[in-house]
Amino acid sequence: MPSFAKRAAAAAVVVVAIVVVNALLSAEGLFGFGVPRYWAHVLMLAGVNVILAVSLNLINGFTGQFSIGHAGFMAIGAYASAYLTVYHGQAWERQLSGAVGEAAAGFLVFLLAIAVGAVVAGLAGLVVGVPSLRLRGDYLAIVTLGFAEIIRIVILNMDVVGGATGFTVPGETDFLWVGSFAVITIIVVHNIVRSDTGRALISIREDELAAEAMGINSTRYKVLSFVVGSMFAGIAGALFGHYTKFLSTADFTFIRSFEIIIMIVLGGMGSITGSVLGAVVITVLPEFLRLLPTVGGFNFADLRLVIYSALLILIMLTRPQGVLGEREFGFNWLRRAQKRPEGDEAVGAGGGVPIDERPARTVSHEAGEDVIKGVEKR
Amino acid sequence: MDTFVQQLINGLTIGSIYALIALGYTMVYGILRLINFAHGDVYMIGAFVGFFLAHGLGFAAEPSLVGLGVTLVGSMAAAAVIGMAIERFFYKPVRKYARMTTLITAIGVSLLIENLGVVIFGNAPRAFPSLVENKQYALFGRATIDSTQLLIFGVSVALMVLLEWIVYHTKVGTAMRAVSFNLNSAKLMGINTDAIIVFTFALGSALAAAGGVLTAQYNPTIYPLMGIITGLKAFVAAVLGGIGNIPGAVLGGLLIGAAETLVVGYGQLVGIPSTYRDAVAFAILILVLLFRPAGLLGTTVQEKV
Questions:
Q1: Per-residue pLDDT for B37 more than 80?
Q2: Do A131 and B235 touch (CB under 8 A)?
Q3: How many of the other CB atoms lie within 10 Å of CB of A306?
Q4: pLDDT digit string (tens) for B121-149?
Q5: Mean of the per-residue pLDDT values for chain B?
Q6: How far apart are CA B215 and CA B226, in angstroms?
Q7: Cα–Cα distance for residue pair A96/B211, rounded to 1 Å
Q8: Scanning A103, A266, B64, B217, which has the fewest C-beta atoms within 10 Å of its C-beta?
Q9: A240-254, A271-285, A309-323, B217-231 — which is least confidently predicted?
């Protein structure tokens, strides 16, 4: 457990980093140094994608449920918060600015809009999660995919949020918002995973029947993880909408959901740092593909989705746990290397092999039964 | 009443196509416990192969039964080969891994086919040539049924009867049912389970391709992403009937088709705009999962530990 001083120092570093990056990304730049507009845009999107990937990893990576409709919850958050800022934002800001000042009023109203986006997306997660999470995992995949489509159709038919013509939204988001919420998402998911709840989630992922036998109410925990994940998707949607200043249902197709999945699969199912890395790589990759020369009439950027899907299959065939697996990367290995005296070998149940490097237990499901390799069945 | 009968006929037409596709989902699920996400895309491939066959062999110019037959059988054969290739190259290597891995692989294969389709065929819809002469037949005086609808009913019923015969009256069908019942025991009884799995994929893919060509006769725009929504609805049909259950898939398909058309026809009366037609299947899915997760004809199976 890090000391309070260490925590405070870490928090200060994070806050300063967000402020500095925000200044670098802003139109004015920091002391005249700024990031080019286009790359600033890419970095903002990367921040939103970090929120999406880390929250989806809570559902897919840590709980072992498979949601492929994250874009649907993102859409709900985006439209719900935008509805608030467009129709009530100015009036509320006027009323509040008398009491707390203009800047604080704008801050509070946007914060409220984000919160509403999160709550509405979370409620939608509850409605979708309760019926499908009572059953085995496969159903969630189909239901979330279908649900994301329904959401799109419903929004297309709602004239109050622009319907098919799109919805113009005031711009509120800057990197202070995106960076802060990305950090909050990471901290919340990290803390959930390291808590009792997280242990329950991981036990459900590893073996739902065994978890049930140990007295874990698997449906309750699965729904919990799903709702929390959906709430953060809603937050990401709210930030996204108020950054792009224009919402169209075309932003929330299954392709968006798919991109989030490839981020967490690339980074590693069950690795928070992995999903951060995956989110940044997948956001930036198309920009590099655009720089490659055109071959045979095809620009590599046009082949982006083909490359993603081929990559997804390749990872599954060769390294199904993702590039990082469940490993987190950080600076701990430096400290560990210093601490361990020479000749000191780890001992324990794993035969001295660090947990990360033990062969993954393979579970197959031939003939409808889960067969665990290496365990004799009687 | 007349329009109701008419809507029902239209709904059952679409429904029998959903049923054809749902059969492939349900057979593969019955054997491997895998949702073959790429199945909807095999349906798309079937339609495109049919398109190129019809144009390449010159059947597009004039409707003819020979042209229809060659197109249908050709695209079914091509899709069967593609289905087998998908199983061999993508699903077989991950079969030993956890269920999540196979599921992600299936989604990956589906997306790969869709996006390759967009790159190769382009995003613009194409018009599928009409292979049957369009004739209207009056039914009981009031409602009408056209030749395309008759064709869809006829071919679907024929294929379903053929499938029924294969599954219940041939040796390979017996083996399929044995593998679906218990893969390991089937293996112990000397059944070449790998061959049976490949055969199941071939059979399901051929049915999906037939569905693709038939759909294209009814609604002649084909495009690379056409398999997504149709595939999902067919999967819902399989779940509605009871996944793994062959008659259930047919029943589910017909019900989904009918429900969809009735919502388009009568939804306004209860305040559901016709643009919600694609949402109907998913609403049904959520209701099924809530009240009867095993499906209409399915039975609840206790999971063995």
A1: yes
A2: no
A3: 20
A4: 988 899 998 888 888 887 776 778 888 89
A5: 88
A6: 11
A7: 60
A8: A103
A9: A309-323
Of A141, A120, A118, A119, nearest to A129 by C-alpha is A141
Query: Per-residue confidence at B305, pLDDT binned at 50, 70, 90?
Result: low
pLDDT tens column, A317-360: 888 777 777 777 765 655 555 555 555 555 544 444 555 555 55
Of A213, A187, A216, which is closest to residue A201 (Cα–Cα)?
A: A216
The answer to whether B213 touches B46, Cβ cutoff 8 Å, is: yes
Alpha helical stretches, state H, chain A: 4-25, 37-57, 70-84, 90-100, 102-133, 138-156, 175-193, 196-206, 208-213, 218-244, 254-267, 272-291, 304-318, 332-339
Q: Is-contact A283 A277, C-beta < 8 A? A: no
* Token pair listed for A180: 């802060």
CA-to-CA distance for A337 and A316, rounded, in angstroms?
Answer: 32
pLDDT for A359 equals 53
CB contact under 8 A, B236 and A142: yes
Bridge-partner residues for B144, per DSSP? B138
- Closest B-chain CA to A312: B108
Q: Which residues of A touch B115 (CB under 8 A)?
A: 305-306, 308-309
Mutate to test the interface with B, among A306, A315, A378 (most CBs of B within 10 A): A306
| ipTM of this complex prediction, to 2 decimal places | 0.84
CB contact under 8 A, A316 and B186: no
Distance, in Å, from the CA atom of A108 to the CA atom of B87, rounded to the nearest integer, reads 54
d(CA A183, CA A228): 15
Choosing among A63, A261, A313, which should be mutated to test the B contact, i.e. which has the most B CBs within 10 A?
A: A313
Positive or negative, the Cα torsion across A72, A77, A78, A80? positive
CA proximity to B203, closest of B66, B12, B30? B30
> What H or E segment, with its residue span, contains residue A350?
none
Closest-approach residue (CA) in chain A for B292:
A131
Nearest residue in chain B measured CA to CA from A133: B289
The dihedral through the CA atoms of B121, B124, B129, B135 has a sign that is positive
Average pLDDT over residues B259-271: 82
Sequence-ordered strand ranges (E) for B2-110: none
Which letter does DSSP use for residue A356 in this model?
Answer: G
φ and ψ at B71, to 5 degrees? Answer: -60, -45
Question: What are the DSSP calls for B243-258, one per residue?
Answer: TT-HHHHHHHHHHHHH
Tell me the nearest-neighbour CA distance from B72 into chain A, angstroms: 29
Which of B29, B99, B176, B185 best probes binding to A when mutated, by most A CB atoms within 10 angstroms? B99
Task: List the structure tokens of A130.
Answer: 């309760």
Which chain A residues contact residue B104 at CB under 8 A? Answer: 66, 261, 265, 312, 316, 320
| Mean pLDDT computed over A255-264 | 89
